[in-house]
Amino acid sequence: MPLEGEYEPSPWDWVREQVETYERTGGREANTLLDTGLPVIILTTRGNRSGKIRKTALMRVEHQGEYALVGSVGGAPKDPVWVHNLRADPSAVMVQDGPEAWDAVAREVTADERELWWERAVAAYPAYADYQKNTTRTIPVFVASRAD
């Protein structure tokens, strides 16, 4: 069932505009990270404190119908807010890769499984390797799968 509630757009203009354009065009526009040409998806979560619907563009890292959600924030010292949202409610998730959004369940991966997904993420977006070098935290990786 789609996430319902009040939508709180990102305070960052470029993120808000990208999400709005991606959704309005069914992923035909605003479907890459800035000028990199690398594809993105739209992740929708519920705010763990506010309860509001939040959306952000993430790098598209797909394998056999599952998607890695990488909490890099460019190697910032803190996890992005959406990581806290997923940890609080991993079933309040939607993924949009193209025209249709779908309900998902996310799980944080660790150990060998994290390494496997991390390799896939770096292959899709090589800058992730630099981001990890720029921070002391282990960048969290979640895997989103279609909800039953």
Write up this protein.
This protein is of the alpha+beta class and 148 residues long. The chain has one domain: Pnp Oxidase, Chain A. Helices cover 28% and strands 26% of the residues. The chain has 4 helices and 7 strands; from the N terminus they run H-E-E-E-E-H-E-E-H-H-E. It has helices at 13-24, 81-88, 111-124, 127-133; strands at 40-46, 53-59, 62-63, 66-70, 93-96, 101-108, 141-146. Strands 2-1-5-6-7-4-3 form a 7-stranded antiparallel beta sheet, sandwiched between helices.
| CA-based gyration radius | 14 Å
Characterize the largest beta sheet: strand count, sense, and whether it forms a barrel.
7 strands, antiparallel
CATH topology: Pnp Oxidase, Chain A
Mean pLDDT score: 95
Give the H and E element order.
HEEEEHEEHHE
Helix content: 25-40%
Gap between N and C termini, in Å? 10 Å
Structural class: alpha+beta
Descriptive key words:
seven-stranded antiparallel beta sheet; alpha+beta; 148 residues; Pnp Oxidase, Chain A; 4 helices; globular
Topology at a glance:
Blueprint: H1 13-24, E1 40-46, E2 53-59, E3 62-63, E4 66-70, H2 81-88, E5 93-96, E6 101-108, H3 111-124, H4 127-133, E7 141-146
Antiparallel strand pairs: 1-2, 1-5, 3-4, 4-7, 5-6, 6-7
Concise overview:
With 148 residues, the chain is an alpha+beta fold. 28% of the residues lie in helices and 26% in strands.
